[in-house]
């Protein structure tokens, strides 16, 4: 991860987001669904200039390690990603319509060098 340069700032912003399936149902064990989710994430990265450094799933939740520009707040990044992923998944897999939610974990480690 390198520093990114914009017009008036230099930044390296990364968010660890966890999206959970409602009631922790084991819906993400299907490899086809997980691959579809990864493809949707890559489409989002091209459209919104987000950087997905890692995408992983564990049956009932998905971990996303995402980089974004400073103009996007963490809540806006999460809202954009979740709404597009949910819309695309529900369009292709309507049988899982009422089984997707979101959880945000706030544990981060900050290192400052003097």
Describe this structure as you would to a colleague.
With 114 residues, the chain is of the alpha+beta class. It has one domain: Transposase IS200-like (Alpha-Beta Plaits, 2-Layer Sandwich). Helices cover 32% and strands 22% of the residues. The chain is built from two helices and five strands. Strands 3-5-4 form a three-stranded antiparallel sheet, with helices on one face. A hairpin with a 3-residue loop joins strand 4 and strand 5. Helix 1 packs across helix 2. The longest helix has 19 residues. It starts with a strand and ends in a 22-residue tail after the last helix. The relative contact order is 0.23. The model has no long low-confidence stretch (mean pLDDT 85).
Topology:
Elements: E1 4-5, E2 10-11, E3 14-20, H1 31-48, E4 51-57, E5 61-67, H2 74-92
Antiparallel strand pairs: 1-2, 3-5, 4-5
Helix pairs in contact: 1-2
Domain Transposase IS200-like: 10-114
GO molecular function, one term: transposase activity
InterPro entries: Transposase_17, Transposase_17_sf
- Could you please say which CATH topology applies here? Alpha-Beta Plaits
Overall SS class: alpha+beta
Helix content estimate: 25-40%
Terminal CA distance reads: 20 Å
Under CATH at level 1, the class stands as Alpha Beta
Silhouette: elongated
Please provide the count of β strands: 5
> What is the helix/strand order?
EEEHEEH
Average pLDDT for all residues: 85
Summarize the biggest pleated sheet: 3 strands, antiparallel
